[in-house]
Amino acid sequence: MGTRDEILDAAAEVLRTQGFARATTKSIAHVAGYSEAALYKHFADKAAILLAVMHERMPELPGSLKELLGNPGSGTVRGNLTQLARTAIDFYVEGFPILVSLFSSRELLAAHRLRLQELNAGPHKAQEGLIRYLRAEQKLGRVRRTADAGAAAALLFGACFQRGFEVNFAGITPSGEEHDKYAAALVKTLYESLQPTKPDGGRPGPPSTRAQ
User: CA–CA separation, 45 vs 43, rounded Å?
Assistant: First the structure.
């Protein structure tokens, strides 16, 4: 790992624990084990460090989404959505302090927005991808055809974002099992509105078992 990578790792840690306003190049340099001068060899200022952290050290959400969207018809819809929700919870819980830092400066937010436009990326991409997935599952008959895919996607990501906000606001560290239960309960409720109906208008029940 090179100097730049070590600086970014240190910056990500400082930003998560102290926030952008209190983070200084001095504190980042101290955690990284370098002088402030070393930081300026790689970054113009603190804002440049934050932007680099945003693009290179944020937890991965798109990767899991691409896996999900690439396989409509595989697994179960409920299972796929639960996996996505769990990944999104990690994304928002870990990334919330850094995401909030963007709003400390209009210039910083504008620079980040411009960079995302150049990369054809942004927070809307995940939601758009989930909408495409749900519509593909509708065509396969695995999601109710009258379900609103856009609303479902907004509800899932919105709830995961809220989880990230609550955890960081309360200053708590839920276990992985607690996050698992949250994701499962969230999707269980959401799936009730997505589950296909039987011809008689009822919900399909579990498969019956017959004695051999």
Answer: 6
Burial 164-202 (b: 16+ CB within 10 A, else e): beebbeeeeebeeeebeebbeebbeebbeebbbeeeeee
In the chain, the amino acid numbered 25 is: T
CA-to-CA dists, residue 170 to 166, 173, 174, angstroms? 6, 9, 11
Tens digit of pLDDT for each residue in 27-58?
999 999 999 999 999 998 887 888 888 778 77
Cα separation, 68 vs 106, in Å, equals: 34
Residue-wise pLDDT for 46-102, tens only, equals: 878 888 887 787 766 666 677 766 688 999 999 999 999 999 999 899 888 888 887
C-alpha distance from residue 95 to each of 39, 48, 53, 204 (Å): 22, 17, 10, 38
